[in-house]
Design a protein that fits this description.
The complex is a heterodimer of chains A (117) and B (160).
Chain A lengths: L2 H8 L2 E4 L3 H4 L4 E4 L3 H7 L5 E4 L4 H9 L4 E4 L7 H10 L3 E3 L4 H10 L3 E2 L4
Chain B lengths: L15 E8 L8 H12 L4 H21 E10 L3 E10 L5 H4 L9 H5 L7 H7 L3 E7 L3 E9 L10
Antiparallel strand pairs in B: 1-2, 2-3, 3-5, 4-5
Helix pairs in contact in B: 1-2, 2-5
The chains are: A alpha/beta (117), B alpha+beta (160).
Chain lengths: 117, 160
């Protein structure tokens, strides 16, 4: 699924995505608020679903080779966080849905768990 | 250049080396050094899997310095057979390393947890992502981590 489809499914606000909306395809997701969990258990290429909109969410996604971030519950990163995401080329989306609902919708749409067994 | 040089006690010359200073409590820049090193490794053509594992280790170690130490020095070195990091900090140190290596053990404050860290996964996660891992700590003085990821198949480096 590309980001454009995902934006429709989750009724997302695009925080920053530039021309990556059609380019980035995701097949799996990893959901956590704990960045240590992201670093320890996510698989490369997954989409990160989180409620943590700090600068560390961008670094965690970057070092773990994740394709983008969906912030849940209308969380929105500060300008400096957005700027870092832009520099790293990590698309950021924000949705009003909560974590559980986002996961349920994306699972229903066919995305797989992006976690190490 | 020859891995056997390790056995002779003469370490091979690094193909690339750079040092970084990390300041304690500087959450705003927590991750910058790891990101810079990741970019360097990409430029050097290091395999993506090695980059990911080492970047995860570096980021965890960098956040540990920010959360628990006054200042840390990261020495990053690329050898023909491995990428190596020495991370030495000046700070409170770790009284019981064995306990700190247990997943879930944490002395984190709520402020650290708010930033998505402090779950007691840091040191175990560094060990999990590296082929060599050593830790020394003196309470009240500081902690030194040494870790490496091999560039060839595991066990292919003499002297380890």
């Amino acid at each position: 699924m590309n980001l454009g489809e995902l934006i429709q499914l989750l009724d997302c606000e695009v925080v920053w995505a530039d021309d990556l909306i059609d380019e980035v395809h995701v097949e799996s997701c990893f959901a956590a608020d704990l960045m240590s969990d992201v670093l320890a258990f996510s698989e490369p290429g997954a989409l990160l679903i989180t409620g943590l909109a700090s600068v560390q969410s961008i670094h965690a996604a970057d070092v773990a080779d994740l394709k983008g971030i969906v912030y849940v519950a209308s969380k929105r990163p500060a300008e400096q966080v957005l700027e870092l995401a832009r520099r790293r080329g990590i698309p950021l989306l924000s949705t009003r849905m909560g974590m559980f609902e986002v996961c349920a919708v994306l699972r229903e749409a066919g995305l797989k768990p992006g976690a190490k067994p | 250049m020859n891995p056997a040089a390790n056995q002779a006690g003469n370490p091979p010359e690094a193909l690339y080396a750079e040092s970084f200073t990390i300041r304690g409590n500087d959450y705003e820049h927590g991750g910058d050094a790891s990101a810079r090193i990741k970019a360097i490794m990409k430029e050097l053509g290091i395999p993506a899997d090695v980059i990911r594992r080492l970047s995860i280790a570096n980021f965890e170690a960098e956040m540990n310095v920010i959360m628990y130490a006054e200042e840390g020095r990261l020495e990053f070195q690329v050898f023909p057979d491995s990428v190596r990091v020495v991370f030495a900090d000046r700070g409170q140190g770790i009284p019981d390393i064995q306990q700190a290596m247990v997943e879930g053990f944490s002395t984190a404050t709520p402020a650290m947890r708010e930033r998505g860290f402090g779950a007691g996964l840091g040191l175990p996660n560094i060990k999990r992502n590296t082929d060599l891992f050593e830790i020394e700590s003196t309470p009240g003085v500081g902690t030194t981590l040494r870790y490496a990821v091999f560039l060839n198949d595991r066990g292919g480096v003499a002297g380890d």
